[in-house]
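General statements about sequence and structure are easier to judge against a single worked case. No coordinates are needed to read the tokens, only the vocabulary itself. The sequence in question and its structure tokens are set out directly beneath this paragraph.
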Amino acid sequence: MDHYQSAQNARFDQLLRPHMERLYRLAYRLAGDKAEAEDLFQDVLTKIYVRLDELTGLDEPGTWLNGVLYNHFIDNRRRYSRRRLVMVEENQLPGNSIDTLAGTTVTNGPEHAAERSDQLACLSRALGELSDEHRRLILLHDVEAYKLIEIQSFTNEPIGTLKSRLHRARARLRDLLAQDGTFFKRRSCNR
């Protein structure tokens, strides 16, 4: 490997290292499958490598990287429109659990663990009943903690549209959870 190539690789690593974990998590949330997320992540890194000069000049490279990943995901979805977005189960998450990602603490004890597991299963089922558009928005905003302005920057949708869509998605999710009693009454949500 020549000096120029190793300098490029070092520059690429330096610019992307701070964003890799969040970028992969976004790929995983969007794809819902480890293998598909890894493919998406690798495809995007390959695309970005040849556009390294663009990345170097950006003030907010994280937002730009998210946009590239999101657009690549949407392009793939359009290409393979028969494939449905798969919900990510807690035990499928790499590394941290949903509890850790959401910043909550888990009380030890089998009763609490069983209740929490049941709630997460109900939440997952309810999320599965949302449209792909609403599910993606809730996962990006409420689970992965992207700000609406960040989501707007990589979806190119007006902020007002995102706000109203998020409101409708949350209302629909709340209705689904109220129907099965997951968070508003103490009932099982077995369907």
